[in-house]
Design a protein that fits this description.
Layout (H helix, E strand, L loop, with lengths): L17 H11 L3 E5 L5 E4 L1 H6 L13 H4 L13 H7 L4 E7 L5 E7 L1 H16 L3 E6 L5 E3 L1 H5 L5 H4 L4 H7 L2 H8 L2 H4 L6 E9 L5 E15 L2 E11 L1 H17 L2 E6 L4 E4 L1 H6 L10 E2 H7 L2 H16 L4 E9 L5 E13 L5 E10 L1 H23 L3 E5 L5 E4 L1 H7 L3 H4 L25 H8 L3 E9 L5 E10 L9 E7 L1 H6 L4 H6 L2 H32 L5 H32 L7 E3 L1 H19 L2 E6 L7 E3 L1 H17 L5 E8 L5 E7 L6 H6 L9 H7 L5 H11 L3 E7 L3 E8 L22 E5 L3 H13 L3 E5 L2 H7 L7 E5 L7 H15 L6 E5 L4 H9 L4 E4 L4 H13 L5
Parallel strand pairs: 22-24, 28-29, 28-30, 30-31, 31-32
Antiparallel strand pairs: 1-2, 1-4, 3-4, 5-6, 5-9, 7-8, 8-9, 10-11, 10-15, 11-12, 13-14, 14-15, 16-17, 16-20, 18-19, 19-20, 21-23, 24-25, 25-27, 26-27
Helix pairs in contact: 21-22, 21-28, 22-27, 23-24, 24-27, 29-30
Length: about 900
């Protein structure tokens, strides 16, 4: 559609007089020219005359009379040759044309039409013997002269139609085509057109319609603007029309825009789909010319498209395939794949007609941009990876390596690319130090088995002669069109292996991955929770002493930030435990309504602060004891209610607990918050996935709450359903198959009006934590005795002196578990009961809590300690019978 034709004007300075140049040109013409003066005397004759009329050659001398050479004078009917010349010509046909010159002379043109006549005869024979119908319409008489093919094309014989007139043709014409054909005649009249080429339908003798391509032209005019004789041909194009209609249906079904650009007329014929892609109707973009198309084309693509087409044409290419941007009616740009080919050329090899299709590839382009961003992001991640990433092709040659790979391999990138994974200079050995065999190669094992290979150890020789021990994880890649066959993650574990040499035998017998992960998480829990306990505990203590609004605002910020950090830590640790498959659930009686009320009490302050109503509804069944893991059910409730409060700015959060005797425990949390789209709800249960970055920045969080809930519900054999609409809130329903607890006789429980009458024995080795516990117990009104280790606690305990024991698990000399065992032994020896004990620890993962409960603790208070958590744990512990 872009005009690629260029015209160069070539001028040449004449080097001969005009008359001489004209005479030379006349001498070279194949047409004979004979010129007579006003007296009809021969002035000159070009050489072609003697060649065409050899018998008259002797007479072609200046001074000869017109009548001597030709039988008739100018103005008479067409001249004939001199009889002698005519006789000598035989079968040749020489045409003569005489014209008067302005000065009264005569100009005779002599032309050999022998071949033209023969061609005309041959054409007539071909037409008569071929499949083309011919017609000739005399507009004065209305008579229509046609050949036999014109008649048989319609399934008739001549006798069926005679006399054949223009009315015969009109009767056979399809009614719908009458209007188009009627509009053609006014164009002929007035010489607006001298010829036409158009399709229409004519009725076949069998009753069906035949598509006819009719081509015609005016042969004779009665007046300057009135045709008298029109002739042409008919061709049966029914098969072509059927194919065209089939193609149109295919194009319509494929939703492809079509176009055809005519260079001569500067017009572009488009279909409706072409216009619809840009938000227009077909009439809105018709007629389409180069200027209109240029106004729709993106400025950056216009020059690129022109350059590309010129380059292809200069290379002899006749097809093209371009991706361009066109402006939509709404103002945005859409990406279009424009494919076309030149279907007609001029004599100079320049395109005259170009045809093609437009396909909307906006979605594909958007996907490509997304993939490109992801690819760049992944490439950036690779460069920041602590492991070397090496990609190899199917032959085991390195085709990619990140920066860390250069460090791990001890070689620059240039020395890695193109090298085989079995390169001799690398001196690879297996984990035992023996030369690495092909069977033990991470690459070949991943490639040949089609499965990932993890934790393989290889020895590597560095250029400086030192040997390094590498940990290699390899995985096959089966992406179509990718040269990559296997990707390896390589980590230098030389120092780590040296440091862990003493533990290597033990690690080989253990489940290295899960245990190492659990130990790491436990250590991190302890190391992070211990200082965090100091921060939050001292913040709580300090909060009670501050009076000015600014000071209280600052301490609240510290408390909220610390609490947020603790939530993140808990989520990550819980999720890691779930993923490792080590999290278990216990089966102990608990009352769902009690859990719900504690959850309500914990989240009510935050809801009130935001002006959101927190409503708890429990039916009578929720007050009956169920068998299950109360801690995990409480965790589900905390996450769901916490999320609802966090994402609700106004309105209410409603927690509903229902239970049937024979049915599941049903938990429903509904809010009037910001809600989520369908796409966001689909991602809600994926770890670390947040629906919207701006929302994350606004409300905070790790994106682990719902994934943890989902895993916990599944672990307890339940089901979870989430329904949400943007701006209309979210509803989460959890069904847990928790059976009713058997009814057992229990001693009556005395409900304490408060904790102020309780006496606590505290054992804590950390000085900061001792200060925090003293301050919190004092805030609760409890009397307390604090010692530094387990030995002191065992020695200090006396019957009826303490109502609750708070024992740190990790203490020197005697830890919390040993201390509780010692106190229980002393109580048993004295024949008295041991007061309930709470484990106070930073190691509060599920397996640890299970261990504490098995050791006789009534519960666990995780560090960092929150005042409300401590109070709730103490209240729950003293209200329940002592664990056996």
């Amino acid at each position: 559609m872009i005009n690629t034709r260029t015209e160069t004007a070539v001028t040449q300075k004449p080097d001969l007089p005009v008359a001489a140049r004209l005479a030379a040109a006349l001498q070279a013409l194949p047409v004979g020219i004979v010129l007579f003066d006003p007296g009809h005397t021969l002035l000159m004759a070009t050489p072609a005359v003697a060649d065409l009329l050899p018998e008259l050659a002797p007479l072609l001398t200046p001074g000869q009379a017109l009548a001597t050479l030709f039988d008739m004078a100018p103005g008479d009917p067409p001249m004939v040759l001199h009889r002698r010349a005519a006789a000598a010509l035989g079968s040749r046909h020489i045409a003569l044309a005489a014209h008067r010159t302005p000065d009264g002379g005569v100009l005779v043109l002599v032309r050999d039409e022998t071949e033209d006549r023969r061609d005309e005869l041959r054409l007539t024979n071909v037409i008569e013997a071929g499949t083309v119908g011919t017609w000739e319409w005399d507009m004065d008489t209305g008579r229509l002269r046609v050949n036999d093919r014109w008649i048989t094309m319609l399934g008739h014989v001549r006798a069926d139609l005679e006399p054949i007139t223009i009315d015969t043709w009109r009767r056979l014409l399809h009614p719908i085509d009458h209007e188009a054909m009627a509009g053609m005649l006014p164009l002929l009249v007035g010489r607006k057109i001298g010829e036409f080429d158009m399709p229409f339908r004519m009725r076949h003798a069998a009753g069906h319609w035949v598509w006819v391509q009719s081509r015609g032209r005016v042969l004779r005019w009665t007046k300057p603007d009135m045709p008298q004789l029109i002739a042409g041909v008919h061709m049966d194009v029914s098969a072509q029309k059927t194919a065209e209609q089939r193609l149109e249906h295919i194009i319509e079904g494929a939703q492809v825009g079509t176009w055809q650009y005519d260079e001569r007329r500067g017009t572009n014929q488009i279909n409706a789909r072409w216009a619809e892609m840009l938000g227009y109707s077909l009439a809105g973009l018709t007629p389409m010319d180069a200027d209109l198309f240029g106004s729709l084309l993106h400025p950056e693509d216009r020059l690129n498209l022109l350059d590309e087409q010129n380059r292809r044409l200069s290379n002899g290419a006749w097809t093209f395939d371009n991706e361009i941007r066109l402006r939509h009616k709404a103002g945005h740009w859409i990406w279009v794949l424009s494919r076309g080919l030149v279907t007609e050329w001029d004599a100079a090899g320049q395109p005259l007609v170009t045809s093609g299709v437009h396909i909307d590839i906006s979605e594909r382009k958007a996907l490509e941009q997304t993939l490109a961003r992801e690819r760049d992001f992944l490439a950036g991640l690779m460069e920041t990876s602590m492991s070397g990433i090496i990609a190899l092709n199917v032959e085991g040659l390195v085709i990619f390596a990140n920066r860390e790979a250069e460090t791990v391999m001890g070689r620059p990138l240039a020395d890695l690319l193109g090298k085989s994974c079995t390169c001799a200079e690398w001196g690879l050995t297996d984990g035992t130090g023996a030369p690495a065999s092909r069977e033990k190669s991470p690459f070949f094992r991943a490639r040949d088995t089609g499965t990932p290979q993890r934790g393989m150890k290889l020895g590597l020789l560095w250029p400086d002669g030192s040997r390094r021990l590498l940990l290699v994880n390899s995985a096959p890649v089966s992406l179509g069109g990718s040269m990559t066959s296997v990707v390896c993650a390589v980590t230098d574990i030389t120092k780590a292996e040296a440091a862990a040499a003493a533990l290597r035998d033990a690690k080989r017998r253990a489940e290295a991955g899960n245990r190492a992960k659990s130990e790491f998480l436990a250590n991190m829990s302890h190391e992070i929770r211990t200082p965090l306990n100091g921060v939050l505990g001292m913040a709580d203590v300090l909060a009670a002493t501050l009076t000015t609004p600014d000071q209280r605002s600052m301490i609240e910020t510290i408390q909220q930030s610390g609490a947020h950090l603790l939530t993140i830590l808990n989520d990550i640790l819980d999720l890691a435990k779930i993923e490792s498959g080590r999290m278990t659930v216990e089966a102990r009686p608990f009352v769902p309504a009690d859990l719900a009320r504690r959850v309500e009490a914990m989240h009510a302050p935050k809801a009130r602060e935001k002006g959101v109503d927190l409503v708890l509804l429990c039916d009578t069944g929720a007050g009956q004891a169920r068998v299950g893991d109360a801690q995990r059910v409480a965790q589900v409730l905390h996450n769901l209610v916490g999320n609802a409060v966090k994402f609700t700015q106004s309105g209410e959060v409603r927690l509903t607990i229902t239970a049937r005797v024979t049915g599941a425990l049903v938990i429903e949390v509904a809010d009037t918050g910001i809600g989520m789209t369908a796409e966001q709800t689909g991602q809600a249960f994926q770890p670390f996935m947040q629906a919207d970055g701006s929302i994350t920045r606004r409300f905070g969080g790790t994106g682990l709450g719902l994934p943890i809930v989902s895993n916990l519900v599944a672990l307890m054999g339940g089901t979870l359903r989430l329904d949400s609409l943007p701006g209309q809130g979210t509803r989460v329903r959890v069904d847990l198959p928790l059976p009713l607890a058997p009814v057992v006789a229990t001693a009556p429980v005395v409900l304490l009006p408060g904790l102020g009458r309780l006496r606590a024995l505290v054992a804590e080795d950390n000085a900061t934590n001792r200060v925090i516990l003293r301050s919190m117990l004092q805030a609760l009104g409890m009397s307390h005795t604090v010692v530094e280790d387990g030995d002191e606690a065992v020695a200090l305990w006396q019957p009826d002196r303490f109502d609750i024991l708070l024992l740190d698990i990790s203490m020197p000399r005697r830890d919390g578990i040993s201390a509780l065992r010692g106190i229980r032994d002393r109580a048993a020896g004295l024949g008295v009961s041991c007061p309930p004990a709470l484990a106070v620890t930073a190691n509060a993962m599920t397996q640890h809590v299970t261990e504490y409960l098995a050791a006789g603790f009534a519960g666990c208070v995780a560090k960092p300690i929150r005042l409300e958590d401590l109070a709730g744990a103490i209240a729950l512990a003293v209200s329940e019978p002592e664990p056996g």
